[in-house]
Amino acid sequence: MIYKLIEKLYPNEGYSIMRLNKGLTNKNYILCIHSQKYVVRIPYPHQHFINRKQEETVSKLVASLDCDTIYFNADNGVKISKYIEYAQDYKTCIDDDKIERCAALMRQLHQLPCVEFEFDCIQQLHNYQSHVSNPIFDLSAFHDAINHIQNKKYIPTLCHNDFVYGNILYTPTKDYLIDYEYAANNDPLFDVISFLGENQIFNFQLRDRFYKAYFQQSEVPYEELEIMERFQNVLWCYWAMMMFELHNEKIYKDIAQDKYNALTNQ
């Protein structure tokens, strides 16, 4: 597929392609052409729960935060973006202020205009549950968090909804927030906990540094954050169990185990 796409976009041009070992739900490649580098994203199948039309809409709003998009196909999710030189993700970056800089990226995103669609946490949960025939873990003991989130009132905010370390990129001149597959209106606390949980930031001092940078002069809603964290661990555990059933790859089973461990140890 990727070779046909490149030949269609750049006919009769010399190029090289190298597989990039990043991404859980997509195949990613580095494309070198015209002395420039690009990242080509080819989504894996069975991703009907991602709305590519919505991703395309969000991509236009977040252009100042994202890397430059060269090509986007809203029918199949194939995307070509400019390769960011010297980029380090949240895990590999060694800068002392990386947690505050991530908070700044999140605040910038949350201050952008809302869109006309929502990331419905509860509906997503039901979608994942419906694709899990043989659950690895019994999560019924933690469903109180589901009920709380379902009834919670919040101010809709444009959120990323997937603050994993690979989506936060640092360079000497600019920081980036990339991959808006799940982006939509949501409770902003979802992003706060997404960042802390997905990057396994459990140290109280580091969390307080992030809270100070993100909430600034506002009061930190610790109780609501705790409930949101429990809900997300349930949500992503179901997601991982679903992905394990679909692809039978150990990494998804490991993620489910991590989320379950977080629930039992929270």
Provide the fold topology.
Elements: H1 2-9, E1 15-20, E2 26-33, E3 36-43, H2 52-61, E4 69-72, E5 79-82, E6 88-89, H3 98-110, H4 121-130, H5 144-151, E7 157-159, E8 168-170, E9 175-177, E10 184-186, H6 188-198, H7 204-215, H8 222-247, H9 250-265
Antiparallel strand pairs: 1-2, 2-3, 3-5, 4-5, 6-8, 7-10, 8-9
Explain this structure.
With 266 residues, the protein is of the alpha+beta class. The chain has a single domain (2-265), classed as Aminoglycoside phosphotransferase (APH), C-terminal lobe (Aminoglycoside 3'-phosphotransferase, Chain: A, domain 2, Alpha-Beta Complex), CATH 3.90.1200.10. Helix content is 43%, strand content 17%. It has helices spanning 2-9, 52-61, 98-110, 121-130, 144-151, 188-198, 204-215, 222-247, 250-265, and strands at residues 15-20, 26-33, 36-43, 69-72, 79-82, 88-89, 157-159, 168-170, 175-177, 184-186. Strands 1-2-3-5-4 form a five-stranded antiparallel β-sheet, with no helix packed on it. The chain has a three-stranded antiparallel β-sheet with strand order 6-8-9, covered by helices on one side. The protein has a two-stranded antiparallel ribbon with strand order 7-10. A hairpin with a 2-residue loop joins β2 (26-33) and β3. The model has no long low-confidence stretch (mean pLDDT 94).
